[in-house]
Write a structure and sequence with these properties.
about 120 residues; about 70% helix
Length: about 120
């Protein structure tokens, strides 16, 4: 496997990781007691993060929507009323992960510095 293929697999892996993080957010909304605002925010953001991750597999630049979603999760973890600190830290840590993973570059449409010639 050449380096371009390995990098492409890594960028696709980042999209899949955001899908998993979104699914975790959705599940975590129902896993323990949340305040009403945090509950609603968590399950909605879970769906958004997972859906954006899925769309980003086909439309790589769409991943930046998850950059915004990750930032919102970090801010909302502290801004919204909460029933316990576990919810806050879950959402903040997942938000940091979503934010960072969304910044992993996609290689779709990129060209490498070297081109290979095929001669007959």
């Amino acid at each position: 496997m050449d380096t371009t293929q390995r990098a492409l697999n890594n960028s696709q892996g980042a999209r899949y990781l955001n899908i998993v993080l979104g699914l975790w957010l959705f599940i975590s909304a129902f896993a323990w007691h949340h305040g009403q605002a945090q509950f609603t925010n968590t399950w909605i953001m879970g769906i958004i993060v997972a859906a954006v991750g899925l769309i980003s597999l086909s439309v790589p630049s769409f991943r930046y929507v998850n950059t915004i979603a990750g930032a919102w999760l970090i801010v909302s973890g502290f801004a919204l009323p909460r029933a316990n600190s576990g919810t806050t830290w879950n959402n903040v840590l997942v938000g940091i992960a979503v934010f960072l993973v969304s910044l992993v570059p996609s290689l779709a449409g990129r060209t490498t510095g070297s081109t290979r010639r095929v001669t007959a």
